[in-house]
Amino acid sequence: MVNKVLVIAYYFPPMGLSGVQRTLKFVKYLSKYNWEPTVLTVTPTAYYALDYSMLRELNDNNIKTVRTNSLDPTRLFEAGKPVKMPHEKLRAFLSAISQTIFIPDNKIGWKHEALKAAKKLMRQENFDVILSTAPPYTCHLIGAALSREFGVPLVVDYRDAWIDNPKHFYLTPLHKAAHRFMEKRVLRASGRVITINRRIKELMIRRYRFLGYNDIAIIPQGFDPEDFRVEDSLKLPYSDKMRLTYAGTFYRNITPKYFLRALSEFLKEQPKYRSKVEAVFIGVVRKETLTMIESLGLQDVVKVFGYLDHKSTVRYLIASDVLWLTVGNGKGEDMISTGKLYEYIGAMKPILGLVPDGVAKSAVLETGAGKVVAPDDVHGIKRAIAEYFRLWESDQLPEIDPEYAGNFDRAKLAGDMARELSSQLDYRGSYAKVGVVR
Prior knowledge:
The chain folds into 2 domains: 3-222 and 409-427, Glycogen Phosphorylase B (Rossmann fold), CATH 3.40.50; 225-403, Glycogen Phosphorylase B (Rossmann fold), CATH 3.40.50. The chain is α/β, with parallel strands linked by helices. 38% of the residues lie in helices and 15% in strands. It is globular, with a radius of gyration of 22 Å.
C-alpha cells in the first residue's frame, strides 16, 4: 500500500543553494519506501541562485509539484532571474528590518495562498501525513494549521534551529516572545519533530518541557550518490595543481578573508609553490570578495566561478584535492552543520574546517580525513595549508572511508524519514481542531 505525504517547502527547485537539496532528495527517494509525495511550493520567483537542472530530477522521478503565488519581498524582483546579493552591511541591515517587520519571517505573505491551495489538495486527495520543512518557519505555521483543520498528522523538519538560530535578529524581547509562542504552537500540533543534529534537539527539549527525548528524531544532512557517479572520470576538470575548493555563499561572519590571508602568507613564505596551488570559489560571490582577492595579490591563484548548477559543482568537488568550509565564530554557530559539509563527505576528499567548537568540528574530525582550525586563526590555517601541500606532493592525502560516507547517503536518509512518517499513520484523525495534546 502506498501512503501519501503533502510536503510544504518554500525553498524548492528551481531555487538553488544548499537549503533546497534536503527536501529535493527526500521527495526523490521516498517512493522507494512506499510514500508518494506531493510538494506544495511557490511559483518560481527571484532568488540569489537558480538551478533549472534540478527540475529535471523532479520530472525524471515524477514528483507532483503544486505551485502558488506569494506576497513576499522576492516578488519585487523579476521572476526567473537571479538577484544580486548586496554588500554585507546592506544585507545585514535589510535582514534586520525584515525580521523586525515580518514574524516569523518575510515569507509570511505566502501563508494565505499556500493554505488556500493546500486545503483544495486535502479535499481532493487522502493524505496520510503532512511534512513541513523550515526555514522559512512560515512553512511550519501552514503545516500546523492544516493538521488542526483536517486531522492529519504533522511532521516538522528543522534544517536550522528556530528561536536559537544565529541568523535571527530580535529587536525586543517581545519579538522573541512572539517567535517562541508560534514555535510552541507548532510543536504542540506536531506528532514528530526532525532535526539535523543533536545540539538543536537538546536546545528544543530544554526549552519546551512537554517534548520528550523520543519526540525528536535526528536525520542529518547528506549527499546523493547519484550526483557523484561519473561515467568518464577523464572528463572531470582536474588540475595539475593542488586545488583547494570552497562551494557556497559568504555572508554574515561566514567570510573568506582569513583563508585568503593565510593562503597569501603561505605563498609569500614559499613563493616556489605559487605555480602549484590554486583556490577555487564556487557560489554567489560579491564584489567585496573580489576586492579582497585583488588586495592580497591572489588573482593568479584564486579562480572564482560564481554559481554553478549542482552537478557541475559536484564535478569540481570530485576533481579537487582539499575541500574547505567555514561557519563563522559567532554566538550560536556551534549548532550549525552546514549542508555543504555532507556534500564534501560525498566527494570523500580531505576537509579543512574553519569552524568553532561544536557540531561542525565534531563532524569534520569524525571523517578521519579532516583538519579543524578556528575560523579566524590565520596562522593555524596557513599551517594546515602547508601540511596539506606536503601530503599532496608526496601523494599521501587522506580520503574519507566510503563505509563512513555511506551513513549520509540521501537514499538511506529518505528511508529514515519514511519510518518517521510511518510512525504517524495510527494517529490520523486524532489531530483535528485541537492538535496533539502533550
